[in-house]
Amino acid sequence: MSTMNRTLTGCAFLFLIVSSLAFSLLLPLSASAQDDALRWIGGEIGKARPSLNYQFLGYSTEEVASQGKDFKLNEHRLFTLVPFLQSSQRDASAYLNLRAQDVGTAAIMPDTGESFPDELWNIRLGGQYRQRFENGWIGGVALGFGSASDKPFASWDEILLDVNLFARVPDGGRNAWLLFLNYSKTREFLPNVPLPGVGYWYEPNDQARLVVGIPFAFLNLRPVKEVSLSFSYFIVRSVRARVTYSPLKSLNLYGNFEWRNESYYRAERQDDKDRLFYYEKQVSAGIQVSLNRQVSLDFSGGYAFDRFYFEGRDYEDRDQNRVSIGNGPFVALRAGVRF
Question: Structure pTM?
Answer without folding.
Answer: 0.85
